[in-house]
Amino acid sequence: MEERKLSEKESLDLITQMINSTKRNMEVGSGNVFLYWGYFTVFLSIVISILIMCTQSYIWSWGWMAMFMVGPVISYKQRGHEPAVVTYTDKTISKVWQVFGCMFGLTFVLIAIFCSFYERSFNFILMLPLSLLYCGLGVSINGIILREKWMIYSPVVAFVLVIYMLMALMEHGSVTVLWNLYFGLSFIVIMIIPGHILNNKAKKQCLKN
After folding, report:
1. Most buried residue, 2, 14, 125, 167, by CB count within 10 Å?
2. What is the DSSP string of 115-167?
3. Where are the domains of the chain?
4. Which residues fall within 8 angstroms of residue 121, CB to CB, at 6 or more apart?
5. pLDDT tens series, the chain, 209 aa
């Protein structure tokens, strides 16, 4: 049986339908991972910053490890809201975040290995700028896939902070409590705002249909 080739217009229409379907699937009721991670990260950054300022101890920075524990919880919560129809675009976005998730884990392991060899102590401060870089790239790639220009460029704020953090490490070799707030509050721009905008667009498309 000979397969019928799609015309250019039909191909574009199909791609548009998949993108619109993916946007609807990302509505908060369907498990908007942007909002889950965004609000949790902002909350955690504020709590850690307050604890450090009150106790004058940076041992509370280990609180960021909670993100590794919350990750499986968010993934489980999303499984309960899986869409009836999963498009190729949905799968692509899922794979993008799986790759960056692996990069988070690999970065943590490599820092632990290198610290054990060279410093004899564990210093995971590089996780902040690198994690911010990974999240920013992930959001930008999602914006490219969903054809949302504002989403492509919103992580610029994160990239500026990443360069600032790395330059500060090179010049001074130390960090301040503000780093935790910078990291958390940047998620308002790269996760929370995009998450709410996607929700609004998804709801409008649902009403149209």
Report:
1. 125
2. HHHHTSS---TTHHHHHHHHHHHHHHHHHHHHT-HHHHHTTHHHHHHHHHHHH
3. 25-208
4. 115
5. 445 555 555 455 555 555 555 555 555 444 477 888 889 899 999 999 999 899 988 888 888 888 877 776 666 665 555 555 566 677 777 788 888 888 888 988 888 888 777 665 556 778 888 889 998 998 898 888 877 888 888 889 889 989 988 888 887 766 778 888 888 889 998 888 888 887 777 676 655 55
At residue 109, the 3 state secondary structure works out as helix
Reduce the DSSP state of residue 84 to 3 states and report it. coil
- pTM (predicted TM-score): 0.74
H-helix or E-strand containing 171? helix 156-172
Q: What would the two tokens of residue 134 be?
A: 């990974």
Side-chain-side CA neighbours of residue 186 (13 Å): 25
For residues 179 and 22, is the Cβ–Cβ distance under 8 A?
Answer: no
